[in-house]
Hints:
Radius of gyration: 24 Å
Number of strands: 8
Distance between the termini: 65 Å
Order of helices and strands: HEEEHEEEHEHEHHHHHHHHHHH
Strand order of the largest sheet: 1-8-4-7
Strand content: 5-15%
Largest sheet: 4 strands, mixed
Number of helices: 15
Structural class: alpha/beta
Amino acid sequence: MCPIVQKIFIYIVLILILLSSCKQKKQERVITPWGEVTDTIPADGAFSLNDIVINGEIIFLTITGPETYYDYHGRGLGTQYLVAEKFAQHLGVSLRVEVCKDSAEIAKKLDDGRGDIAALAAPDSLHAKENTLSQALRLWYKPQFIEEARKQERFLLSNRSVKRRVYSPFLNRSKGTISKYDHLFQKYAPLPRWDWRLMAAQCYQESCFDPYARSWAGACGLMQIMPKTAAHLGLSMAQINEPEPNISAAARLLQELMQSFSDIRSVTERQNFVLAAYNCGPGHVRDAIALARKHGADTQTWGSVSRYLGMLNNPHYYTDPVVKYGYMRSSETLDYVERIRARYLQYGGVPGGRIPSGSSSPLVPRKAKKKYKYHV
Length: 376
C-alpha cells in the first residue's frame, strides 16, 4: 500500500476505493438526491478518467454518517463528501452521490461498475486499484484537504454562514405588534390552520424578520425557502425575497406537511412534528417515529418521538434497518422546535394553536386561565 493511502488509513480514517479503468458501465436510470438521471457511459466502452471527464460526472459511493455523507437542508455535507466534491471540482465534473447501506453494497456496486470512488468511515477489506483515476487522485490529494474540509463544514454549520440582519423579536410589545409582516401571517396562517403568532415565531427563528436573509445552502427570504422547494410551491426565484409570496409559499408548505402528518391525531402535537419536518425534512421525522414504534414508545407525542430523533446522530440508531434517511444533526432540529415554541409563548400564543373566536386583543394575556379547544 502506498504511503499516501497509509496516511489516509492512520490519520483520517478514510478509504478511497477506485474502480479499474477496464470496468464497463451499463446505461440505466438512476435515482439520486437531486432527481432521476441517466448514466450516459456506453455499455461497451472502457470506463477511464477520460470517460468521466467527457461524461461530466463522477459517482461517489458512500454510507451515511457525520464523517462520510449526510443531507443538510438539501445540501451534502460530511468530511469525506467535501473532499470528494473538491476532487470532482478539480476534474471539472459534477459529483453524484449514491448512499449504500454498508460496505458490502459499496463493494458490489464497484464490482458491477456502478461507481467511481467510494468512501467508508473506517478501513475495510476493500483495496485501491491502480488505474488512471487512482493516479489522478494520488497526484491531486494533499493531507491538509481533510482539515480544510472540516473547517469548511464548521463554518457552514455556524451562524456566520447565514447572511441576514437581526431585527427585534417585537416591533411594539405594548401594542402587541410582533413585526411589520403580521398582516401577512394573519392572512396566510389559516391555510395550515395555525395561529398566526406561531408562524411569526417560526419566521423569527428562520430569518429574524429579514426578507433578504440567505443561507449558504441557498434558502431565501423570511421563511428561508430552498430553491427546489420554491419550484415545487410555484414560487419564482424573482419573488422569493418578496415578503408576501415567500410567506404564502411557506404557508402552503406547512399545509402540505400538516396533511402528510395527519396520522398524528393531536393538532398541537402535529404542529411540533411539522416544525421539525420543515427544518430537517419529513423523512428524518418519519425515521424517528419508526424507531419509537420499534421500541414500543408513544408515536403520537413529540416529547416521545423527539427522544428518538435525538438518537439519529448515533450510529447504533441511524444504521437501524427501520431508518431510511440515515444520520442527521438532530440537536439542531430539536433546538429549532424548542425555540419556536418558547418564542410562541412569548408572543402570547394559545397552546391549542388557534386564535380564540371573539378575541379582541392581538395577544392573549399570559395569565389567562381559560382553555380553548382547537377545531380542525
